[in-house]
């Protein structure tokens, strides 16, 4: 037998297996970015699943595989935006400050809320989701549960602590009391009835804590 005949046939190297997880994550990120940018550019009513898909470079069926509507896409993209911004800034999960000075703590949080509401990255999607949540009950419940309620519970905890230390009335209902700060701020932002500023936030704290009668 000749040396040639003893050679083994060359082994065929198998093709690498595609990393579907990496590809899916890349597509998901592209969809998030497309949804957020379109809402900022053309507004929520003119944003479509087809438009998001085209900008993200994916098929429409890819979006419908993960979400049932553009509202769900935008909500998830908005929640992810907040997480990404906090991670880039090296921030820990937000904790309501308790310095022993309730007024100062409330002013700090409301000022930070004003800054976030006016942030051009957050304002267009937040405004779109807030408006859509009024007419889309399912989205509204999810928006409240995943975004608003965790933040409101921070107010509740701080006001309960103030009640225990005697800084507010003993019969105070924290859930109702927090609306004195949060509701006017949200209304002014949503309806654009006046400018949002740190001075406005400070005035809300002053009026809510000390009332309207002369001191």
Automatic annotation (TrEMBL):
Highest taxon above the source species: Bacteria
MF annotations from Gene Ontology: DNA-binding transcription factor activity; transcription cis-regulatory region binding
Segments for region (Disordered): 1-26
InterPro entries: Homeodomain-like_sf, HTH-type_TetR-like_transc_reg, HTH_TetR, Tet_transcr_reg_TetR-rel_C_sf, TetR_C
DNA-binding region: 48-67
SUPFAM superfamilies: Homeodomain-like, Tetracyclin repressor-like, C-terminal domain
Domain HTH tetR-type: 25-85
Keywords, ordered alphabetically: DNA-binding, Transcription, Transcription regulation
Pfam families: TetR_C_11, TetR_N
The protein, known as: TetR family transcriptional regulator
């Amino acid at each position: 037998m000749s040396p040639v005949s003893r050679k083994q046939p060359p082994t065929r190297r198998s093709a690498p297996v595609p990393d579907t997880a990496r590809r899916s994550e890349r597509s998901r990120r592209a969809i998030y970015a497309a949804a957020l940018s379109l809402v900022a550019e053309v507004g929520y009513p003119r944003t479509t699943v087809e438009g998001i898909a085209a900008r993200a470079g994916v098929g429409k069926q890819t979006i419908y595989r993960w979400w049932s509507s553009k509202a769900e896409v935008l909500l998830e993209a908005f929640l992810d935006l907040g997480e990404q911004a906090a991670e880039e800034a090296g921030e820990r999960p937000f904790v309501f400050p308790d310095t022993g000075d309730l007024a100062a703590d409330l002013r700090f949080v409301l000022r930070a809320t004003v800054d976030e509401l006016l942030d051009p990255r957050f304002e267009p999607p937040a405004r779109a989701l807030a408006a859509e949540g009024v007419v889309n009950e399912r989205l509204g419940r999810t928006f409240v549960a995943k975004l608003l309620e965790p933040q409101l519970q921070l107010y509740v905890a701080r006001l309960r602590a103030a009640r225990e230390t005697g800084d507010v009335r003993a019969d105070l209902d924290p859930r109702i009391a927090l609306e004195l700060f949060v509701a006017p701020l949200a209304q002014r932002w949503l309806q654009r009835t006046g400018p949002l500023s740190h001075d406005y936030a400070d005035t809300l704290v002053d009026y809510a804590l000390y009332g309207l009668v002369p001191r």
